[in-house]
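lol ok so funny story. i was supposed to be doing the assay writeup but got distracted and ended up predicting the structure for this chain instead. priorities right. anyway since i did it might as well share w the group, maybe its usefull for someone
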Amino acid sequence: MIKEALQLLGVSNKVTLRDIRKNYKRLLKEWHPDKCKGSKQECTEMTAKINGAYKVLLGYVENYIISFDNKSYENMEHKDSLWEEQFGNDLMWGRGEQY
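and the output, tada:
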């Protein structure tokens, strides 16, 4: 079900929530029954499918447990340089500064 939702929204297996939302909005504009160039029934059905796929992916993302412990961070496939800039090497406290 998740793979079909990813495919319908045109996103890959590794995707950000921002990308999911971006593709969802783009597809809704394209398939909205008032703007779609196809038959009204086809557009309405596709809009329903797009909404369903979006709900499936959001449901998964909202219920996915994310671990912020050091071991999980070290095992990440790609460490985001933005994360490093904002929080430094220490996952919990940032650049080791005391607050």
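Residues 67-99 form one domain. The CA atoms of residues 66 and 72 lie 9 Å apart.
back to the writeup now i swear
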